[in-house]
Amino acid sequence: MRAAIYRGPGDIAVEDVSKPEIESPTDAVVRVTHTAVCGSDLWFYRGESDREEGSPVGHEPMGIVEEVGEDVRSVDPGDRVFAPFKISCGRCEFCRKGLHTSCVNGDSWGGDNGGAQGEFVRTTEADGTLVRVPDRYADDEATLEAVLPLTDVMGTGHHAAVSAGVGEGDTCVVVGDGAVGLCGVLAARRLGAERIVAMGHHEDRLELAESFGATETVAARGEEAVERARELTYGGPRHVLECVGASSSMDAAIDLCRPGGTVGYVGVPHGVDEAGLDVFSMFQENVTLRGGVAPVRAYAEELLADVLQGTLDPSPVFTKTVDLDGVPEGYRAMDEREAIKVLVKVDH
Amino acid sequence: MRAAIYRGPGDIAVEDVSKPEIESPTDAVVRVTHTAVCGSDLWFYRGESDREEGSPVGHEPMGIVEEVGEDVRSVDPGDRVFAPFKISCGRCEFCRKGLHTSCVNGDSWGGDNGGAQGEFVRTTEADGTLVRVPDRYADDEATLEAVLPLTDVMGTGHHAAVSAGVGEGDTCVVVGDGAVGLCGVLAARRLGAERIVAMGHHEDRLELAESFGATETVAARGEEAVERARELTYGGPRHVLECVGASSSMDAAIDLCRPGGTVGYVGVPHGVDEAGLDVFSMFQENVTLRGGVAPVRAYAEELLADVLQGTLDPSPVFTKTVDLDGVPEGYRAMDEREAIKVLVKVDH
């Protein structure tokens, strides 16, 4: 089969590799039809985090079940499914609590199970990991493109909103206008926020934020952005969604949060260890830092229900579509910020 | 009047200074009878944080109201009162929410209002700041010594437990065996914790922790301490009280916390900016960091009720008593860890 392989910073190649096969009774093999390039893929693409050369890439698979192990009960060959960016068992203490990312039987995509930017992937723990899309939507392209972000960015934006404690009537600020930030706006609106201030650096993305439900936008940078957001929220919001993970955006989120408020953070921390988090500001104003890697499996059913009934549609975050051979071009477009998020339609 | 004055690292002098007077209608002057030396005083004493030379020290005053401004309604001259380590108005948005440390009219002790380690202090915002001790206990020495920690360490330990989300039947770990950590043990027990593991470095303090309600103690250091606490709690507690504020103890608290759990932190962060917080570990396991400088005024009434009815007694944290002239000796004893916390009985 063909799959996108990491060959070093700036170098993604689509190559022939061996197709993953069922290895244990709880496995399933999925023929990937749709997947995406993630902002977090850019860290290794840019050489800013380590990744083994020669490893398959991609962690947002959607497709058709090809084959299942003998113990798999929840899906059958031919079913339309998607899977979160983490494999989880659904049975352990943490999965039962909705913290699937800490699953004791968990695993990641991209090893010998294949990367999601390829023709096939194998999931261990198929019953715990795969989410079935009802048959009547199984081939509806518009629905599938709205469901695909549930593999990662929509669940992650939702986790930011949940972690920040956003509820009915609240005012919140969303830091970051990438795909996760935009999904954070959708999530905050879905949870009933009355005022949603979106902060970012790109006019076109902030326009999309407005169409997603942002009531105000702030396009400034640094201290000016913080001041403007604080002004708009009469002294800072009680709920901040930090959707970037950079040291500067974490500090901005903490800085603009109202005393006693909560920063929900979901961006993979990047450079935060080196630059240091502004713990003293948090301490002085009792700002809570809550969140982490999003257990998107925990949110899949409720978000899927809303997508299927048409009240939630994150698909506009896909501003570019490529086929499997176009994956390297997809990375380039995201790296150069030409695309917010790239949809990959995998041809077989 | 006489008051303890900071003269530089390692140098506290008891000197004659001018007595604070009523300056505005909301002021009160308190004749200090009891106060204490705080672990946080050691930061400037050791030269590890800046403080203006010549400034009066002490922030845990208890005494008798000497004089009040014409707008003061809640206390009269002759009343027995104590005050938290921060002055707060009781009326603003933050005070009404119980976040008195973010009071928009707030102030600190130690400027021209006098330090609490002196004969008199003036509080602005007397109605919002001073807590009245009922007359029947006003001269009961044992009760007063049990009330005094409500000015700081008992409220701070309580804030750690509340921030960590400790409740009925919970298992928690308390990091730190100083006065705040010991009060954290008392607070966790009071909130219904079933298992309380106290971590520290001093056998005698851990014995006191046991008498305060710790069910187990860990006297090890570093990774060994974390491993031992994790073992005792079958993989880490969901609730960790971080009662030190050093970079190493913050990292230990985050490290041993169960995935999805909460670290309640109340120690003034010290060296954390330089060493960097382990944000990546927090992120990976969705560990929440909640807390900050404790709004002890918010907790004063409920804790006072328990002290007065005899179900809460933090006074054993005072292991040494001095008079006003003995304040320098009190700093020395705490600096050299001879005393857990020093009680100052102010003679007039």
From TrEMBL, chains A, B:
Pfam families, A to Z: ADH_N, ADH_zinc_N
One annotated GO biological process: small molecule metabolic process
Entries under InterPro entries matching the protein: ADH-like_C, ADH-like_N, ADH_Zn_CS, GroES-like_sf, NAD(P)-bd_dom_sf
SUPFAM superfamilies: GroES-like, NAD(P)-binding Rossmann-fold domains
Metal-binding listed as a keyword: yes
Keyword field: Metal-binding, Oxidoreductase, Zinc
Swiss-Prot/TrEMBL cofactor(s): Zn(2+)
Domain annotation Alcohol dehydrogenase-like N-terminal: ranges: 25-135
Any GO MF annotation of the entry: anion binding
Domain Alcohol dehydrogenase-like C-terminal: 179-296
Top-rank taxon: Archaea
Keyword Membrane set for record: no
Family per similarity comment: Belongs to the zinc-containing alcohol dehydrogenase family.
PANTHER family membership: DEHYDROGENASE, ZINC-CONTAINING, PUTATIVE (AFU_ORTHOLOGUE AFUA_2G02810)-RELATED (PTHR42813:SF2), ZINC-TYPE ALCOHOL DEHYDROGENASE-LIKE (PTHR42813)
Name the UniProt record assigns to this protein: Zinc-dependent alcohol dehydrogenase family protein
